[in-house]
């Protein structure tokens, strides 16, 4: 009988590896074209990204950015909705896309043998979408219903109200949709918004996959060199956000079975020099199931099924949030425990072992983050959007390794202090019990809203 | 898939390894051939609870350390329980690949949770249930449509279990469940990534070779009487903001020659933007906000399912009539070559895109070996899909989409 080894087998030395490097060319109209070769599988993904997202939408038409993305899936000036989807499916291609506060992306992935038809189709969606009245009417109904659905979910309500509590009236704090914004958006608004966003001077065309990079780059450069620069009204300077007065907002949801608890505060934009240190701090405090919050609040105390903190860094600003679902009678205890953990993490130095572990997690996870067409493409888009150095992804592992513990603790002290945080709880009436006294030590006073009163913010 | 190494240990553990040095990573999937279908009334949720307890320590690994050691190297780790199987998967930097094998082998030998850990995990599962069932707009409806669709408890109850059953579960029952089902001969280990196959097989022998062989109980067999009368029920859902409709039909199990025909029908109806139901219900008639569903294949009784979420005030009868009409269309009109080609391309591309993830590939390899005793089954999948022609679709639709055998659940916002 073989004896079971009493300790784990020793690991070997890590294999040297680097994320694939894109071939890049900047055109005279400001458009960047880039190609990354990944030839393990016969597939390809083509993306158009623009450095403007929901920030470009009219504040009276919140949701128009998302509507634009959705209507763009209904065909192009050349192809109606049915022809467009048939063209996608004929190639086995899938379209995806999204709009964040800072960027808009459309992407089509499919079999590499169809790379040029996919390039054509992606270009037409990005630059010449159909934006028909019929498609807009359908998507307005669908978006309104999805918004209404979200406004009945405690987690979505907490997310929306945390945005408002952290950023106030700053564009970064606006929800993705509001009922009134969706209703007010016309086809003319979408055409204007598309014109504002889809300007070549803030665009990137990226091809990732089983292609010849030199040939594809050359062809893209020739093809797009003459797209004219578009004059648009996009604001050039975005003001720094100012958080409104802190509070605990309790949103009563009469039929909820669970309460969602969330806290959050302002942090830093992506290109801030403290970004690496704050990433390590976030990882140690709440970035994963190995982090302090999860271990103490779920593993040790069974207060929740899961709790994580999230560091979200945009071009102009960033925030930290921590959210968890709790049984209603655990809402006050859960919120107090969450705030206490954040206080401890910011007031006292994190343990060396926690910092070392956090760094190792981030370094070890990088190849996973950089895997697949979507992963590699995402890194290339992030580099371009945030103006990161060309060697950003080649040096990220060594830079994380080199972050001093003092910097990590300084970042935790500066950005995880709950005395700067606002809080939101959404749950049934029973989850309200004890909340006000639970947050008083953290300088928060409780205010309450009913679901109906939420309409002032997201209706 | 090429370049696959297979072996079996003397204790019965089946092993399949596919080397791929694209990234310095390895994805590992350990699949146990046990799921909620073996549970009896009163003990629902035990398979899932045991999955949680597998992370609560073993002889050489402290509670919670399985996750922390994997994540400590930047890896990802989780478990998932279904009606048929329980899967434990992780990824690791390839230079640490043996760490996960060692911990997986240790907990295959025995679980090491104490009473306090058991109670914490039971509470965590109840929290999970609260989140996924009670607090989800259509959670209770999903439980109910399962109950309505099967006569037998095995497939008809929710994998996460009924609340009272989970609340009453005892630690000794969980230990007994592990002892009964977590035997090496009842598991398949699949590994994909940057490993030398010989080194990997050596490591598997070192870690799993010490797990003693054990017999597992006889698996339950299931049979469902053919339904002759349609079932329809309505359920009020306090958290649902929109009405919804579920429709299920019985379908053929894994291993049936018509398995691939069902896969094509699923793609025709549900997959991709030009899929029939998306085009008609969402894009054209706008009587649904979204539709989803497809073939839920088991080794026992299986289902073909439909779920449609409607706008406020939506008419469930209209949606049900449209769905019935689309099923009827499958019977009456042969699918055109053009549409079939689109389905084939979509399936092929979907399979290729799915292969980008090492863990995803390890899971697929493991399933192939477990269900088909053929690690190359996944490779042949697309080829078999390409052989499905219009006549087979008409034949299966005519035989199986009998309105009298359907189960319908209408969800009404309360």
How is the main sheet of chain B built? 6 strands, mixed
Cα(first) to Cα(last) distance of chain B is 50 Å
CATH topology of the largest domain in chain A: Cytochrome Bc1 Complex, Chain A, domain 1
* Approximate shape of chain B: globular
Largest sheet of chain A: 6 strands, mixed
Structural class of chain A: alpha+beta
CATH class of the largest domain in chain A: Alpha Beta
CATH architecture of the largest domain in chain B: 2-Layer Sandwich
- Structurally, the number of domains of chain A stands at 2
| Biggest sheet: strand arrangement of chain B | 1-2-6-3-5-4
Low-confidence runs of at least 5 consecutive residues of chain B: none
Overall tally of structural domains of chain B = 2
Overall spatial form of chain A: globular
Sheet-strand content of chain B, in percent, reads 15-25%
Q: What amount of the residues of chain A lies in strands?
A: 15-25%
